[in-house]
Structures are given as structure tokens and as C-alpha cells.
Amino acid sequence: DGYAYPPPARSRSPMDPASSLPEALAGTLGHIVGQLDVLTQTMSLLEERLTMNEDKVNRIVAIIGAAATRSAAQNGEPGQ
To answer: Which pLDDT tens digit goes with each residue over 3-55?
Structure first.
């Protein structure tokens, strides 16, 4: 037929919320999301470190408790 049809216009679907935001706002929100990702990773690492320290403290408490029990037994003191 020889007629050149224009390309279909990009539809703004409700599934693509960024398409309805101004470019500056979309960029700012993207930056915020990136910063939240970094914060999430940092919190995860801190949680791991806290757990490791708690485990170490529990082992130290057990060692001190066992040593105190042995010391009391060697000195003839009644058990605690």
C-alpha cells in the first residue's frame, strides 16, 4: 500500500511507574534505592560481626566458669 505507518507510541503501563515520573525525580529515587542497598549490606555485615562477638563472649564465659569450678574443686570448696 506504500503508506509508512508511524511507530507505535510507547505506552505508559501501570507496571512501569518510572515512566510517569520526571527524570530528575526518577534519578533521585534511584540514588536513594542504591543508598538503601548499601545500608542493607552494611547492616548485614554488622549483624554478622555482632553474632561472632556474642559467640566469643559465650565461649569466654564458659571457659571462665569451667576454670572457677575446677579451682573451687581443687580448694575443696563446695560446688556452686
So the answer is: 666 666 555 555 566 567 799 999 999 999 999 999 999 999 999 999 999 99
pLDDT of residue 79: 53
Residues near 62 by beta carbon (within 8 Å), at least 6 away in sequence? none
d(CA 58, CA 66): 12
Cβ neighbours of residue 21 closer than 8 Å, sequence gap 6 or more: 29
d(CA 78, CA 69): 10
DSSP H helices in 1-80? 23-74
